[in-house]
UniProtKB/TrEMBL annotation:
SMART domains: RAB, RAN, RAS, RHO. It is a lipid-anchor. Signal peptide: none annotated. Keywords: GTP-binding, Lipoprotein, Membrane, Nucleotide-binding, Prenylation. It is found in: Membrane. Belongs to the small GTPase superfamily. Rab family. Its main location: membrane. Pfam families: Ras. GO terms for biological process: vesicle-mediated transport. The small GTPases Rab are key regulators in vesicle trafficking. GO terms for cellular component: membrane; trans-Golgi network; vesicle. This is Ras-related protein Rab. Residues 42-64, 253-274 are annotated as: Disordered.
């Protein structure tokens, strides 16, 4: 386990952004229910029109250049699907966090979530992998209902958020963590990775200090923690990239274990396979 650097320290923020442990920042296309989004703009045409076409002397006729594309191979894209639940007390900023991450926007006209809201983030993780993130923004009141078991089902990652200016929301993070651990596990029975996010770090009058957060993170098996500001966009993308990286590693490890198990089940001698009629 490791904690992410605090968003308020610029030098630490740069250290995370440039760390070789994290993959390059993925490009993304996004969609949110009940929200219409503009597509990403195309690259500036003026750049292409003003860029000179460099030609080798003696080959001014472009039609004489023959390009053989028959040997070019387009890498096969693998699509990964992850469900991430975002939980915590009411008004800690869960919905604003999701909107900042998916839309890169912030709304002051806050409306409390009723039940659960959904969002989708599509990441081009590498040249051969695309990730679809299902983000489940669960209302803070839902911890007291039986519906959390339904909402948590098949989740592979979790964000537990509290408000730095609201001490009770920090104390309740442990209750949220115990609730998740009791209702949601990975295929091997281990707890799903949970990030602890201390939101609203842009506001004064904090009621929780970093030593308390660090202690909670270490003692209760959180995957990592950091301070965030959905309003200012601080450490929003970085914290999610960290969580996705953890989920990807766990998924790859599980796939490798499955392949090794299959290899062990394969008979060492071809003759043995003929004696099996099951």
């Amino acid at each position: 386990m490791r904690s992410l650097p605090v968003a308020a320290a610029p030098s630490s923020w740069l250290a995370v952004s440039r760390s070789n442990d994290n993959p390059a920042e993925p490009t993304a296309t996004d969609a949110v229910h009940d929200v219409s989004m503009d597509s990403f703009s195309e690259a500036d045409d003026s750049f292409r029109s003003n860029s000179p076409l460099h030609e080798r002397k003696g080959h001014n006729n472009l039609q004489s250049l023959e390009l053989d594309h028959s040997k070019e191979e387009v890498p096969e894209m693998t699509e990964r699907l992850f469900k991430v639940i975002i939980i915590g007390d009411p008004t800690v900023g869960k919905t604003s966090f999701v909107q900042r991450y998916v839309q890169d926007s912030f709304r002051r006209d806050y409306k409390g979530t009723v039940g659960v809201d959904f969002a989708l983030k599509i990441l081009k993780w590498s040249d051969s992998e695309t990730i679809k993130l299902q983000l489940w923004d669960i209302a803070g009141q839902e911890r007291f209902t039986w519906m959390t078991r339904v909402y948590y089902k098949d989740a592979q990652g979790c964000i537990i958020m509290f408000d730095l200016t609201n001490r009770s929301s920090f104390l309740n993070t442990l209750k949220w963590k115990k609730d998740v651990d009791s209702k949601c596990t990975l295929d091997d029975g281990s707890p799903i990775p949970c990030m602890l996010l201390a939101n609203k770090c842009d506001l004064p009058h904090r009621q929780v200090d970093q030593l308390e957060i660090e202690r909670l993170y270490k003692e209760h098996n959180f995957t990592g923690w950091t301070e965030t500001s959905a309003k200012e966009g601080l450490m929003v993308t970085d914290s999610m990239r960290f969580l996705v990286d953890v989920m990807m590693r766990q998924k790859n490890d599980a796939d490798n274990d499955s392949e090794e198990s299959s290899l062990r089940l394969t008979p060492a001698e071809p003759e043995l396979s003929r004696t099996c009629y099951c």
